[in-house]
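Example record

The entry below shows one chain as it appears in the dataset: sequence first, then structure tokens.
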Amino acid sequence: MIVKIVSLFLVGMVVLAMFGKLRFPGQKRLAAAKCSKCGKYKIGKGPCPCTRGIGK
């Protein structure tokens, strides 16, 4: 009985690991929304505040 429980646990962990490796849709767009200088997320279409000298 314990062997069955352990094997089911290991199979469950393998399934979770496979789902963790998946790339979620929209991940490229999130990476493109970051500022290349400071790494903060840009909100809106304008430049990042760090390039304008405002967010220091």
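Notes for this example: The mean pLDDT is 81. The chain has three helices and no strands.
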